[in-house]
Structures are given as C-alpha cells and as structure tokens.
C-alpha cells in the first residue's frame, strides 16, 4: 500500500525527470569532451628560457564553424626577439586571428607558427601561455578586489610585485586615491572603474608574470583621447624588453614600431616602417589619410553642436542691449485706439493708424448690427 502511494506521488514528476535527462546529456557531452588543444595536458616541449622570436610560414586558416571561408591566405612574417610590430587593416582581414594562433586557441589549417624556431603545436600549451601576456580591447575583470584581479595574471605574486606591475602600468596613482587601495572591489566586469582604469589594471595583470611576448589586441580603440594617452604611455613602458605584437585600430599609436604589416583580405599587401609606408603612398597611406579626415569630422561635430546650442538660448539668457533711437525714429507710447501696442517707428505709424481706425469702425458696425 505504501509503495503504491509513493509511486503515485512520483507520477506527476516523471515528465520533469524525462526533460532533465535530455538536458543533462548535452551538459555531459561538453564536460566529457576532450579538446584537440588541451591547456591542462602535460605533454609538449617546455621553453624555460624563451627568447620570443616569432615566425609564420605560409599560414592558411579557416575557423571550424566556417571552413569554406578562408581568413588567412599564405601569410608569412618574421619577428625578431624584442622587436615591436603592428598588424593593421580593416575588420575581418585576419589581424586578431594571428593573436589566436600565437596563443594556440587554434591551429593553422596549413603552414607553421613557430616561437624560437619550434612549432607551437609541439610546445606545452600551459607553459606557452604563461610566457605570453595579452591586453585586449575589452578587459575582463571579476567581482573581487583590485589585488585579486591583478594577481590572476600570476597566482603566486606578492603585494610588492603587484605594486610594481601597477607602477609600470600607470595604475598606482589612482589606486592610492581609492579609500581601500588595493582592497577596493571593482564590481562585476569592473563597473566601478572607468575604461582607462580598467585597461591599466589589465596591463598590470598581463605584465606581472614578466612575459617574453606581449600581445596588444586593439587595447586603446575603445578609449577617449585623454584616457588613450595615459594607457598608451603605460603600454610603451610594458613593451620594453619584450617581443610585442600590436593589433592597431588607431594608426597614430604605432609610429614607433619596428615593422608594420598591412593586411587586406587575409593577405599581407604592404610591410615596412611607418615612414617607409607613408612615403610609398599605398594602402597604409590611404588608411592614415582616411582616419585623419574622420577624426577632423568628429571634432567638428561638438563645435557645431555648441554653436547651435548658443543660438537657441532663451531670451532670459541673452544680455540686454540699450539702443538709442534717433528723434525722427522714436516710437509712440501707445496705439490710437487706447490699447497698449507694439512700439512703432514714425515712418510706419501712418499705415498702423489707418489699420487701427478701420478695425475700430468694423467693430462698431458689428455692435450696431447686433443691437438691431
């Protein structure tokens, strides 16, 4: 009897259990799957003394979700240890894909990516990523303290090491002004910080582990001019002694790099120093000119807006001006009908008087008509 009662109690939940079984299959499929690139694997070569030289040899690549759409088409480039290079081009031309290949989030479809002349596919993934620092366009901060967020770059870092990283990243001054200093909570996704402050924390987190390679993926493109200058200064400090790959949106930030590679449709169409590419007057020169014109237009918009706002000021805000009128143009105090009217200059008074008399006669005639 008790068994049948228990079974009756469970019957309404059988449908829910069936739905849960279907859902858990999808979850377990993800949990039990083994990625092709395993960051926790112990296999692979460990570079204890990485120099940081990079080379791409005839690299072709398509993302797994769009295998028919090639992103990189035979890209070859070389970066010496300690050199600074920039990758520029329109959106979708393959710049950020190279960053993903260096971090080994993906493997190339064809060709080789090597670091210190060793194929990255042969390196231990975890140790490789320990030697690479990344600062992206939108830094990811967690709901913890500033100290905890910076220490995520190197979990064994001491307070002194965190402070030194913040000094290089131009972050120590604003942190000292906070009530709780390094113990200040940043909120979910760093909502308590400005865009420039978040980027400086991200720079400190990237360099605290003293990486040999630094990847900057449009690190200043989302900042205003004032914040950009502060962050750019911090980035230049962080680049010293490191191989640096910069994916640039604002071309004014890459004047001092050793080499610039211009991408178009997944291929390198130009390369050289900033001065060489400007003198060549090719694709890079056209991009620079277009960006300058766009910036000038953006600067004109606030000026025009200010002019419009000033022209639309209310009369109470417009300063009063006393104007003396010559005697022949003085205004009459009131209209002939006895009503206080708009002041009228003497040359116009005659027509105004006739109009007022006509209006008065018309009103009186209307009054008599109604009386009859």
UniProtKB/TrEMBL annotation:
- Tell me what this protein is called: ABC transporter, ATP-binding protein
- InterPro entries for this protein: AAA+_ATPase, ABC_transporter-like_ATP-bd, ABC_transporter-like_CS, P-loop_NTPase, Type_1_exporter
* Entry keyword set: ATP-binding, Membrane, Nucleotide-binding, Transmembrane, Transmembrane helix, Transport
Q: Where is the composition biased (Polar residues)?
A: 324-337
Start and end residues of each stretch annotated as Disordered = 295-347
What sequence ranges are listed for the domain ABC transporter?
A: 54-290
* Keyword Nucleotide-binding attached: yes
Q: Its Gene Ontology molecular function terms?
A: ATP binding; ATP hydrolysis activity; ATPase-coupled transmembrane transporter activity
Q: Which GO terms describe its cellular component?
A: plasma membrane
């Amino acid at each position: 009897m008790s068994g049948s009662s228990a079974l009756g109690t469970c019957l309404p939940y059988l449908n829910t259990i069936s739905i849960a079984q279907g859902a858990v299959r999808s979850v377990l499929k993800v949990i039990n799957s083994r990625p092709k690139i395993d960051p926790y694997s112990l296999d692979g070569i460990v570079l204890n003394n990485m120099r940081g030289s990079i080379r791409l040899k005839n690299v072709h690549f398509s993302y797994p979700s769009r295998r028919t759409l090639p992103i990189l088409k035979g890209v070859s480039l070389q970066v010496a240890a300690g050199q600074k290079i920039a990758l520029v081009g329109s959106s979708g031309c393959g710049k950020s894909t190279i960053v993903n290949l260096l971090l080994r989030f993906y493997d190339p479809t064809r060709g080789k990516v090597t670091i210190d002349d060793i194929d990255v596919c042969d390196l231990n993934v975890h140790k490789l990523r320990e030697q690479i620092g990344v600062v992206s366009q939108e830094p990811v901060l967690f709901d913890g303290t500033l100290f905890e967020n910076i220490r995520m770059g190197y979990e064994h870092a001491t307070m002194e090491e965190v402070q030194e990283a913040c000094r290089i990243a131009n972050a120590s001054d604003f942190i000292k002004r906070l009530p709780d200093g390094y113990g200040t909570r940043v909120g979910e996704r760093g909502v308590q910080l400005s865009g420039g402050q978040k980027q400086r924390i991200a720079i400190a987190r990237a360099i605290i582990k003293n990486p040999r390679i630094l990847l900057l993926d449009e690190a200043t493109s989302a900042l205003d001019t004032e914040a950009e200058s502060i962050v750019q200064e911090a980035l230049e400090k962080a680049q010293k002694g490191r191989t640096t790959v910069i994916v640039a949106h604002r071309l004014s930030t890459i004047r001092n790099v050793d080499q610039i590679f211009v991408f178009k449709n997944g291929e390198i169409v130009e390369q050289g120093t900033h001065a060489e590419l400007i003198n060549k007057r090719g694709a890079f020169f056209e991009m620079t000119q277009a960006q300058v014109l766009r910036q000038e237009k953006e600067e004109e918009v606030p000026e025009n807006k200010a002019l419009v706002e000033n022209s639309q000021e209310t009369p109470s805000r417009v300063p009063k001006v006393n104007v003396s009128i010559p005697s022949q143009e003085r205004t009459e105090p009131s209209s002939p009908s006895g009503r206080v009217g708009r002041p009228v200059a003497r040359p116009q008074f005659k027509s105004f008087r006739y109009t007022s008399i006509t209006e008065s006669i018309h009103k009186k005639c209307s009054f008599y008509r109604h009386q009859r």
